[in-house]
Every structure is written in C-alpha cells, then in structure tokens.
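Hey, can you fold this?
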Amino acid sequence: MVLGYIGKDGQRHIKAKSLVGYLPDGDSPFEIASVTKPIAGLLVAKLVEQHVLDYDDPLIDCRPRQTNARCFAGESVKLIHLLTHTAGFPLLPNDLAGSVPDYSQKQLASYLQEFRQSRKPGSKFQYSTVGYAVLEQQINDLPHRPVFTNLLAQLVLDPLGMKNTAVWKRPSGDLTNILSIWLPIPDQNWESVGISSRAPAGIGTRESEKTNARWLFLTR
C-alpha cells in the first residue's frame, strides 16, 4: 500500500508498506480502476471548452417513441447523462459470464444492440462503467479527431505530466478489452502499450503513485 499526503511542513510525502513480499515505491505501477472516470470527464470538459462537444449533445437522433440503448421513448441519452451516471446503464453488462478483463468491444457492441432503456435519461442516478465505455465510443466517432486514447494523452495526461500512466496488455496481446478493471501486477510477460493508450472507465489502467499523487494534488 502506498499513501501520499502533504505534511505540516508543506512538502509532499509518500509512504509505502509491503503487502506482497517486496516494498513498492512511488514508481511502482498500481491499478487506478475507476479513478480513470474523472480523468475521462476532464477530457470531455476540454473538448467542450474547445467547442468540439457540448454537454447537452445527444448520442443519436432518436425517432419518435424510439427506445434502444441510446434512446428512451424518442429522447436521446446525452453526454451529460453519461458523465453523471444518469444515462440508465447498469454498472456492468448483464451478459458478463467470465472475468471482467475478458469482456471485449465486440461483446459490448452486441450487448448494446440488445439493451433497452427503461426510464427517462437523467431521471435517476446509477453508477455505471458501461456508460463510460459508451462515452469512449462517442469520442471515437468524432470526425477528423484522434481516437479517445490519443486525445486523452494530448489534452489531459501529457499537459499534467502524467508520464507513467499506461494500459497494460496481456501476454495474449489482447487490446480489445474495454471493461477490464482489475488485472494482475505485470511480470516479464506483460508489456506496456505506452502512454498514448488510455482507458475511460478503469480499464486495465496503471500508473505510479507519484503520478497519481500529482493528479490528486492538481485536482484537490
């Protein structure tokens, strides 16, 4: 466990305690899981600031009375609903049969094809990882723009100096995961896919505690 705090002397301190037989330090990689959600939210804020997006942008143009994954009774889910967990999506897909890291983009697309909203968007809070996966899809569909991972690097992580934040791919080389929240500590068979690949909802994302502390200090 690693703890970062500001002491009475005004300095930043990082303390570590070993739970796995060796002592981690500020450069050791740790899962940050859903801490990536507010980071993804900051990316959307930057795109709104640049007038690329608006919080009230609908995900799609719904037909009258249309209900599917992105519409309820003809009303579209909006970006603000995804960001605030009021879009109507569940925490995780109900067809998740195996481990979370094995859920692929193809499976998500199939799940969303069958999913039907059951209430008016914005009417109820329900914490959702699925919603942030949909958010990534929306950003990836922006015309003439880099994909989500590259935009996140350009507009958020690199400007904040978060150089140690990365997605780790498994020995199989599978990079299709989009809901992978917990992964083992990387060993020699794992490989970082680099700082230009990020994830919106806690998707196998790792960063060092020094970098994470920087994020916390910059947003506190």
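Oh, and this one too while you're at it.
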Amino acid sequence: MPLMLMAVLALAVFLSGCAKAPTTEMDNAAEALARAENDPDAVAYGSPSIIRARDALATMRTEAAAKKYDSAKTYAQEVVTASEKAIADGKTGAQRARDEATNLLNGVRTMVEETQKNINTARSRNVRVDFNTINGDFNNARSQVDQAQTALSGADFRGSIEKSQSARAILGSIDNRLTQTSIAASRKK
C-alpha cells in the first residue's frame, strides 16, 4: 500500500509539473479588457467594471506566474465577465445620458420661446428694464443652446447637459428679472 501511495503522489507531482498555463483563456481575457478600455462608452459609464477587470487580470497573471493555473483560468473568466459588463454598462449609460441630454435640450428650447415672448411682452408694455442687458443675456442663452445641440450631435452628452443647464439658468434669470420689474411697476400704479 505505501508503494502504491508513493506512486500516486509521484504521478500527481509529475502531472502538476506538466500542467500548462491557460494561455488561450489568458489571451482572451487581455483582449476582452482591451476592448472595454477602448470603448468610450464603457470608459465613461462602466469604469467600476473596468477596474474589477484590471484587478482580476493582475491577479490572473500573478496566479499563472505561481503556476496556479486553475486559479488563473478562473480569474481569466472573471476578466472577460467584468469587461463584457463594462461594455454593456457603457451602452446603457450612454443611452440614459443621451435621453437626459435630449429631454433637457428640448425643454430649454421651449424656455427660449417663452422667454422671447416675455421679452416682447415687456417691450410692448414699456416695462422699464435694461433691454440691452436682457438681449445680451438672451443671445448668450441661445448660444448655449446651439452649443448644447452641437455637443449632443457629437455624442458629448455631458457637455450637452452642461450647456443646456447653463442656458436654462440664464433664461430663468431673465424671466425672473422681467417678472420682478413688472410686479414693481404694477405696484406703483
């Protein structure tokens, strides 16, 4: 019996020494991470998964160097899974940002029209307000809207959102000044 046990142990040691690194799986893992890192949406909206994939890749390489090939193979699969998740999260995040930017821009366009009507109404009622400043601010807001549209067309959703928010703030300020001036004028009568 001890002879048989020694033979089994010798065979196990021999076979473990002959085990090969899972190079195909490791190469696939590295390629999957490269795809995720080169996907702008994955980088912008799926970065936690990219970080997990990088960590798993480093661990995979460490395990392979230590000849822990089963563990390396497991980490290789983890790299692939995290990389694929990063790409999927990127697509979802980009769609959500696109929708938010589009909705915000459409709302601001409506505000531009309403503010233009408020300016025209204030002019027709001879409201005492600095129309030069109002016009300058209004033109600035319209420029922000144009820049938001350009950003949206170029898939710069964050830039579009920022420009739309800026335009909304300017338009809100104009409307507030016109309202306050109109209220003050009506109290004097």
